[in-house]
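DM from R.C. (forwarded with permission)

"hey, sorry to bug you on a friday — could you get me a structure for this? deadline for the figure draft is monday and I only need the backbone to look sensible"
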Amino acid sequence: MADAFVLSHPEQAERLRQSCPEAAGAAVLAGDPCFDRMLAARGHRDRFRRAFGVRDGQRLVVVSATWNPEGLFGDGGAGDVLPALLPRLTGELAADEYRVAAVLHPNIWQGHGPGQVRSWLDGARRGGLALVDPLGGWRQALLAADAVIGDHGAVTYYAAALGVPVALAAAPLDHVDPRAPLAGFLADSPRLDPFAPLPAQLDALIAGHRPQPGPARFTSSVPGESAGRLRELFYGLMELPEPERPALLEPLPLPAYEAVHRSAPMRVLTRLPTGAGAGAVVLRRWADPAYEPGGDGAVHTAVPEDTRDPGRLDLADVILRHGTPDDPRFGSPAAWCAETLRRYAHCALAAYVTGPGDCTVRTRDGDALMLTAVPGAADADPTAYASALHAWLAAGRSAAALAEHGLLVRTGAHEHRVTVAPLRA
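My reply, with the result:
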């Protein structure tokens, strides 16, 4: 390799070509072990999505912020849009159609402290935001993502190198070396207006996505070969023979499962489509939206019992709780449902979620029911099934009518089949 340079940073090879005349006739190779680990783990995308709580039919939107006054997180001044953007994402994007996660640079956590950062992002977290481990989980989040909103940080650039649709909510071109590949990436990437309606912007970003060739090319000119190339270089510099065993990289681990937890009240828009068969309910939900949902249908409020504002429970149509079926603090799911209906006179239905696909419900009319996702035919949050049942009953239909065919709950473009059965004593 006397006539080649091997560099691990995504932009070092291009900078060397431009600034070092001695390298003009040499092969300059950019090998990136971090990028190679992500490329090797692409086959586990579905597992990563499940680990982050993404269900079938949902899009995962990852928001990335670097540590820089001109970045998306900013310095608390006029350009600091992230604390306002994240709760808008969780509030404007339909909860059963999107999952939102944030990757914040480790120095943001270190510089401000975890308590302060979580306080700033509290509203978005109550709306279901996932905060990704900035050291151990960001690579897996990029592989799982359907879109990334970012700035001029490395995580955003890696997302583009992987071919993920990227929109920039901060792009400080004046602070980037114009000769660097990053400058071309910032100039050519779509922008996201953090103050305009967000769903249409994300739809357009994903529908019109055309991967830029630059990020992948400048991240690695020898994809998949960084371990061998770099080891060869290092041992050559030490004038030592290489080990005979292959040079291998540690695979990306599977992150721990992170269930979606929303404590914010949900506004739910439902309608019963004509001619769609028995038990069909179309449903869309938003976590504490700033504006009333638009569209045809009936609207109701579903509130988790552990909401920050207990006063909202007095106005809730549906009250929710997640827990294990044998939690002695509540007696049983059915007992909690009965107690909740006694406590809140305006509540029409109480639902206790006991697993990823089922929940126990009790109605104001006295029906005690078990809602269970049909294996392989349903993959939504069970609280959505509870709201669909409430919509069915509020329209004057009976729970008994669902005994044979169950519920068919439509969220976005997906359908979820749910059995409805009397609760056994």
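R.C.: lifesaver. The longest strand covers residues 414-422.
me: no worries. The two ends are 76 Å apart (CA to CA).
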